[in-house]
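agent> call fold_tool(seq_1)
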Amino acid sequence: MRKLLGLLVVCTAAGVCADGVESTLRALQRGGHVVVMRHASSPKEPPAEGKAVAGNGNGERQLDVAGRRAAAEMGIALRARGIPVVEVLTSPAFRARETALYAQLPMAKVQEELGDGGASMQEAGGAQVRWLRDYARRPSRGGNVVLITHQPNMAAAFPGAGAAPAEGESLVFRAGGKEGYTLVGRIAMGEWGPAGEAPEAVTFATEDGAEIHGDVYGGGERGVVLAHGGRFNKESWIPQARTLAAAGFRVLAFDFRGYGDSTGPKAEEPAYFEDVLGAVRYLKSQGARTVAVVGGSMGGGAAGMAQARQKAGEIDRVVFLGALSDGEAEKMTGRKLYILCRDDVQGENTPRLPGIQKQFEAVPQPKEMIVLECAEHAQVIFQSRQAGRLTRELLRFLQAP
């Protein structure tokens, strides 16, 4: 390690020197770099039977809670620093795709050359090594490119970069130099920016006997419950929870029964609406005067049923994010905002908009609908070009008297 022109410079044992973290972050703010990142924290073994998260149909290794939180914090820091990202490519491995998902990186696409061949810690093939090196040589115009891959791929492609990267660590390159690329710096997962204040972990019971685990952010008198979609966990809401807490809300993001550590009675049709009502009642018991619910996809369906079956005045308003109520929509009282992408589809390319429009027309006032020009579904809209508008519309609706 040595000083050069007042900047910290880090040199590897192989004699390759790179800037310190702050200099590297400033370089990324200017754009034009390739960030080669190892996926976030993941247990070394696949999940036990029945413990795979939604979407992990093959039972692959998946992120742990620390990995999901770290990925979310990384994404928050990228956006806070104004680091432009124009392309995101990820290994097909589930834990790599989860990293992009929880960081809410824009429009991530799967790239086979970034994969692990279906075998964890498998030695990288020659074609993969060449592909990674070639990508590091490409000048990135208009922003930065993020590649999410695995330790063997990174170590084989860039042996001069020093020690093998830890989980979540990134190597930052720019085009040019002796090899056609130059190592600008290394950034550990926790070095993108200061982590936000840790939420308060809470547990509450539902009326039908479920035990639900959640995280509470902020401490305002107006409460917001965040109900995740079927492919997510409570950590998926970290960026939105912090935004809402900063706006003065007391926010509770929870795991539905069967997700994370939450448990509940076994049933063919889980009573997810009971989990929403339990979360609402928990916030009320902690001093929230009013409580709104934001539900993405599955969470929106449960929020609608909760709004229909609530006791008078429990739920002030509901946001249906790419969702409609699971039933009893005609009984939903309180304000309602339906917001979705125009080209959002399900199953065999069936558009969601007509079904949501039909329910919207049938539910009682007050209500409003916003159709965004995009194709992403529910919480994934936060990874799209409409993320900024979606956040503004949520704040407008939730802050209205």
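agent> call fold_tool(seq_2)
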Amino acid sequence: MKKILSLTLAAVTAASVFAGCAQVSPEDASPIHAVSSSAETSAKWLRDRLGDSVNGDIFLATSDDADRFGIDISSLRDEGYVIRRNGGDTVILGSTEDGLDRGARYFANYCADQDEIDVTYGEGFRVKKLTIAGRDISEYSIYLFPDADECHTFAAQELRKYIGLACGYYPNIVNEKRGHMIVLERLLDDPTLGEEGFTLSVKDDGNLYITGGKWRGCMYGVYELLERYIGWRFFFNYQTEKYTEANEESFYYLYDSDHVDIPAGLGDTQVPSFTYRTGRHMVQAYNQYVKLKESSSVNNLSKYNGYGQSTCIGACHGLQFPIQAGAFSNYDPDMYSIFGAPQPCFTDETFIEEAREYYLNDVARLLAAGYEIGKEFSAVDVAQIDSGDFCKCKNCMNAIATERSDAAPVLYFTNIMADAIGEEYPGLWVSMLAYFGTSKPCKKTVPRDNVNISYCFYNDIGKLTCGNHPLSGEKCTEHAADGYGTSNHTYAEEFKEWCRISKRVTVWYYPGNWLLDSITNSTIKTMREDMRFFSDNGVHGIWICCANPPSEGVRESIDILGLYLFQRLLWNAEMTEEEFQAVIDDYLYVLYGEGGKFVGDYYKWLETTDMIGCWPFMLGFGDPRKRIDFSKVHDEFELCLSMFDDAVKYAPSAKAEYGVRLASRSMYVRGLISVYHDWYENGNDAQKARYTELWEYFRNLAVNSSYILSGGKCAVLSDFDISENIGAMVDRFEGSPTRVSDWYDWQKY
């Protein structure tokens, strides 16, 4: 039997053993003792949690002091711990301070009242035994074909690394077939797998085959094997740190298992729902995009086989850059340094000729630098600048009248660019936006076969999409609140028509509100149906347009859970509701342990506060009280507080607890606004004290985590006076501002 388990409880708890710990430094007369300074944090936490109502004395120590208790914990992982009690005193030992923290929390939640305790966690590897078709993993090597590129070499290295971390055996990577193997192979021109699909199979020879499509199939197959069949999880971290090799452990998790068997006869083929899968700001904050099967915005192009920033299929105001660079004779670059500058004239022959020359030269420049069409870059972005001020010259207006669409001059220009680029560089796409005045398809003219239409479900100020229902429009019942926007029926029909007349369509997807997101509800309830709607209409790719980088200050409607779910759906848009919920539950458990189910309960509760009907997806264009039932928030604020109290209580570590507290911030915003009058302004002394306590807690949490309330960070909260400032904030909220500027000003209060 292992060393830890071989020790008898009598030896552990003998009076003579504890007598040897006379040097402990108890906190006054508390029965909870830190044996050394490394145990002080956990001891204080346990004192705060349990007080003096404990059975006997409790001694906490890390591995440096474990021998004082006669217990060898050298075989524990960093997060491991031992808890022993036999009718009297208790000892909690952690391999590290993190392990001790976890042990203290486990003791408090699950066994503090027990007379006898014998708990060991974190001994050995998380996967005790790993087999393939019943054969031990130690019989296997990893076969990598001899002419493998950097991407496939990286995939083999990742497979070896995570198998080793899971069970302790690191298979050799070989270039010749012998014995039992995990075989990495690629199919360059397979119509089924394409560029990124894969098949996982265990054949009669006992070998495990990871067969991938042209570019990244093997790599994605490796991650699927690790995740689905071995138990790894790769996720967005809720801390502010960026992914590096040094902090990598903060971004992955592995379930404990006595035995994992990859079964004989396995046959799992997957092809992504969308070829192009990415999101604004995702990579700037995190580098887990590869493991989450994102296909763009990677930094090391060769390592991940292309599809980097320069292959941004989805258009993103490509004209802005040559205009600002002075490429066009009739346009002052300085004018285009600010938002809302006038669009160029898309029917002007001089402008067209200069644009043609610029883009042809730019492609030639990329090719000369060694870029490959279809790999490092796939499209030329000729899309309009970010403005609704279009040219109203005779030619442009005639085109609009003829086509019954404001998009006519833009499509006219785009088709000319597509003809020029397609003739010189076959296989290269030309991208334009259907956005901000150009969302309606033309009646006669259709995009050239090499034109990618990037449709934006944002469109024009004054006719925004509905944020309460899926974009298919099937559940929309009316125009959006306050006269802003329209039901999603209109946008859905425009979008489907673009899909019908275009060879390729990508989507700019706006998952939440950019203005005062702390008030709004999450978009989790609609995203699954939206992704399926896009998939059913043959969309090539999705660009998740997040308003802020995912960080501690991330806005609630594009929270970390939401970003993770988007990544899952971009790969598999056909998830059932049950599968989607399982992904949510799994992710919340990984981040928050048993506390995750209470965070999940809050997300479910939040959906019950949605008002009936349609309302614009951006809060700055409508009364927030018509979107959320604040009377329900008022009445059930204490319920919400209790959900997060339970989540904090059952968080398995200090880091998980902090994550729970971060997740609670928007709940506090809603609740504190809702109960201000009854609790603080008109309440009794007890209610006022309770409100003040909650406000101070939220303020400190928000300031320390740079929480975003509206247009900026809430550092201004550091000087908040409740009676003046929060009253002004509530008054403004209740005044129902409808102008964007009003909501940006909200942060000042």
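agent> summarizing second result for user.
Residues 129 and 630 are 52 Å apart (CA to CA). The longest strand covers residues 76-86.
agent> awaiting next instruction.
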